[in-house]
Each structure stands twice: as structure tokens, then as C-alpha cells.
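Researcher: Here's the sequence for the chain we discussed earlier.
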Amino acid sequence: MLNIPQIVEKTVKKYGTSDPFEICDRMDIKVIRQELPDNVNGFFVKILKNYVIILNESCPHEFSRFVLAHELGHIIIHGGTNSIDMRLNTNLCVEKHERQADCFAGCLLLKYSGLCNDAIDGQVTSEMLSMVTGVPEDVVRSVLL
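Model: Thanks. This is the structure I predict for it:
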């Protein structure tokens, strides 16, 4: 079983930051914002040996950080296998990989924000934390448990 918080911790230690934009920069992953259909927040592709993450330009900045961290989770945890490839070419459980990428993103953005302790102490609700960080509330709750 994957220990996603430990993978996040190693990632933060290796790259010296929990900012997904900086991690992408240090991993030489190109990040592009462009117009995408409303139902697509982002995705990644591998061109030759280089990863590119495309973010929907209409997403608010804080939510874009979550989407970027989610896609980064796929690259780091799943070796670059994206959900489109999985649906078309394997019998693997796509939903499980999506939840793992969500967990990676939530841990990356919440555990190092300083706000997590306030939420655990009851000073901040998961709804408030979601609004401030852009991390969906269900992911906030799963990371805080």
C-alpha cells in the first residue's frame, strides 16, 4: 500500500518546497495555462522524455495549484500514467489512482501550509480551509483524518 504522506514528505525534502509550481520548475516539467473545455481542469502529457502539464486558464489560481499538484501526483506516484491511457489501455482502477493523486495534492498543499494545525485544533473548518487553499473540501477532510 502506498504511503502518500511519506511520498509527499520525500518530495518536499528533495525539492526544498511544497509549492507545486516550484517543484515542476525543479523537475523541468513545463506548465501551460490554456483554454480547455469547462469539464477539464487539467491534464499532463509526456512528449519524448519531457512532461507537460496543461491547466485550464479559467480555473481560479488557488484551484489551479490543486490541479497542478494533482497532476504532479500522477507523475510522481504513478510513473506518468495518466487516466486517459489507463481507461483506454488497461484494466486498472482509474478512480483509485485519481483518489491517490487527490491525496498527494491535498497533503502537499495542506500539510505544509500551517493551516492544517488550526483545522485540527478546531479553529478553522474544512470548508474554510477549502476556500482558502483551493483544495476540494472532501480532499481536505480525507487529509485531516
